[in-house]
UniProtKB/TrEMBL annotation:
This is Probable GTP-binding protein EngB. SUPFAM superfamilies: P-loop containing nucleoside triphosphate hydrolases (SSF52540). Signal peptide: none annotated. Pfam families: MMR_HSR1. HAMAP family: GTPase_EngB. Its cofactor is Mg(2+). PROSITE patterns: G_ENGB. Residues 22-195 form the EngB-type G domain. It comes from Aminicella lysinilytica. InterPro entries: G_ENGB_dom, GTP-bd, GTP-bd_ribosome_bio_YsxC, P-loop_NTPase. One of its GO terms (biological process) is division septum assembly.
Length: 195
């Protein structure tokens, strides 16, 4: 699968602002600063599809990108930014639930975690939430360039254990900086869209 074309088609805080529920969607979730914008830019080959955050945690919208005129990539708001107030956090949960509950086209949510660290409590909660909706199964370990191959292998097994992944679930290490790993992810996305 090669992305030839991608354009933002909606920035939403509520369902009325979503695009029509008429095509498959692949969403991306992760804590603020995990490297989600950088990954989306890598996948789409654009420098500014998603804004790489100068101020993490500020994005409180669900962003929909139309890809190749036949599916959408959905950028979910990052979670876990320390300076977000309690009320903002509640809003985040409502936004997720409204989207997950009512979206026929949603095929999978790709969970991002930092390759360097054990998944956080919130990462585990997010993944459990995806499991609850049957949207789990693919994890991307970001910023893989920041550690050695050996450390990466070790951390991937920690990630698998901490998130409670099963044999079929995938952890795909990616570096947006070095531009490595995206082919494997795109293959997985292709499988999801074909299935
Ligand atoms: P977001 O908040 O999840 O969208 O994260 P960003 O894409 O804005 O990235 C957060 C920070 O991590 C930025 O300073 C990026 O330059 C950096 N970053 C993102 N991906 C990578 C990566 O693969 N390798 C390295 N070394 N840094 C990265």
């Amino acid at each position: 699968l090669k992305i030839n074309k991608s354009d933002i088609v909606a920035v939403a805080v509520k369902p009325a602002q979503y695009p029509p529920d008429d095509m498959p969607e692949i969403a991306f979730a992760g804590r603020s600063n995990v490297g989600k914008s950088s990954l989306l830019n890598l996948l789409t080959g654009r420098r500014k599809l998603a804004r790489v955050s100068g101020s993490p945690g500020k994005t409180r919208t669900i962003n929909f990108y139309l890809v190749n005129d036949d599916f959408r990539i959905v950028d979910l708001p990052g979670y876990g930014y320390a300076k977000v107030s309690k009320s903002t956090t509640a809003g985040w949960g409502d936004m997720m639930e409204l989207y997950f509950d009512n979206r026929q086209g949603l095929r999978k949510v790709i969970q991002l975690v930092d390759a360097r660290h054990e998944p956080t409590k919130l990462d585990v909660q997010m993944y459990d939430y995806l499991r609850h909706y049957g949207l789990d199964g693919i994890v991307v370990a970001t910023k893989a360039d920041k550690i050695s191959k050996r450390e990466l292998q070790k951390n991937i097994s920690v990630i698998r254990k901490t998130l409670g992944l099963s044999g079929d679930d995938k952890v795909i290490p990616i570096s947006a900086l070095k531009r490595t790993g995206q082919e494997e992810l795109m293959e997985e996305i292709e499988k999801i869209l074909e299935g």
